[in-house]
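A quick aside before the break. I want you to see a complete sequence-to-structure record at least once, exactly as it would be stored in a machine-readable document. Don't worry about memorizing anything.
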Amino acid sequence: MAIIKTKFSRGVEGTTNIVDAGTEGTKVASGTTAQRGSTAGQIRFNSTNNLAEYYNGTSFKQIDSPPTVSSIDVTEVDSQAGGNQTIVITGSGFASGATVTFVGASGTNFNASTVTVDSLTQITAVAPKASFLNAQEPYGVKVTNVSGLSNTLASQINVDTAPSWSTSSGSLGSFNNYSTINVSATATDSDGDTVSYSVQSGSIPAGLSLNSSTGAITGTPTAVTNSTTSSFTLRATAGSKTADRPFTITVNPIIEQFTSNGTWTVPSGISQVAILVVAGGGAGGTTDGSGYINAVNRGGAGGAGGAILITNYNVSGASSYSVNIGSGGTVGTNSATKGSNTTFSGGSKTLTGLGGGSGGWGDNLNNATSGGSGGSGWYSGYTGKSGTQPTNTSDGVNTYNSTGYGQAGGDSSNVQPYAGGGGGAGSRGMHATEASSGTTTTDSQGNSLTGDTGDAIGGTGLYIGSIFGTSYGEQGFVASGGTGAGYNGNSESANSVSTKAHLGGGGIGYNASTNTPSNAQANGQANTGGGGGSGGNGGSGLVLIKY
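That is the input. The structure line, written in tokens, reads:
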């Protein structure tokens, strides 16, 4: 036990000076705040706040040292993000009951909504993110102990909000090959920070570039052979905050369609194109004077116009090409004509699609004709005519697989309705007996087709949908043969998928027993090269150019 030696000496007016010779310290009066005295000069230990204090005659003053604030764990707040921001403060001398104030650069301060003194060296403070104002950045952090002593760590917290996209997500547009593209995807920043742009994922179309300062996407896209949609995500960055948004741009090949005579001018920079040349379809067998098919003769169906499809045709040999569209064959009393040729010519090169053959007609005459696709036989035992195929073509640069598409017409059968279907670009025509016995033909997509009992089947069309799309012809087929006269009038309807006999515009046959159209118009569809059904005209031709 320490021995305290104290010497008292009485001064003037009876005061006593205390001299403490010990080493452990001098114990002063101790008590709660409620037990304070009121004499100036009193020194005591306040057991309520655990601080020494003295009375100056007016109030008690705590004897303490200020805290130290050395660092914080958050230096950036997104004021528009919503919710609260938790900030851990590191330092020393933190006393229970301390407060935390965020000090704005221009003097606008606010206190933390909750303060937890974790230890003498750590405080956890929580404040609404919306309380941090961009105009007041950077904020300092002030810790004040209950003694009133404080310490401030200045210029610590910046206010930075993520940029906001002005351009809606989704498509930025659909454009053709060789077009000049200038589109923008933009964002703004409420803090006034400069926004920069980058491709975060995916890729913009080849040939285009992104301006990192403006968000503009410009340039001429690299040509595509099929419609191509590029998906990508752009990132807008302002300060250290980012915002991502997905977009698409579609680039389409150019397809020019000729349904009448004209001139095609080769665009600058174009040397190869995909081209389709379809001739006019042949007419079906003749009608009698009343305008209907002669029920006794039962005219055969017309063949489709011959088709030429080349995916890499070299057009560099001329600056322009002449296009002549073949007309469909016509049918009248005791007559039926072939379709006319369609030509595409320029320089020393000409592509010729041969008009479809007409169906058989007349009394006991085998007068069906050959053509791009053959017309069908019309009477018992007569054969359908062949389709004539153009030979390969060379322009000295490329040898093209330009073999034309045209199939033979169907034979006539020995039973009603006698007439066969016209040949198509995709498959030959068949007569009713073949259809009834289950004999099949195959279309240009490899589908096996079988007709209904009592009906002739027109040859199927050429499928061009994979190259030019399905908006041309019917469902992307062109040059279908006409359908022969139907014994029961059950020729396939215009929307039939089971046989596709109609696809590409082939005419539908007549009911031989009633002299009326069977389910659809007997004429071949215009600008598809479809052959006429029994008693119908052929459809006119077509030229498509894609680049």
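Two observations worth writing down. Residues 6-63 form a domain with the Seminal Fluid Protein  PDC-109 (Domain B) fold (CATH 2.10.10). The helical segments are 432-437, 465-468. We'll return to this after the break.
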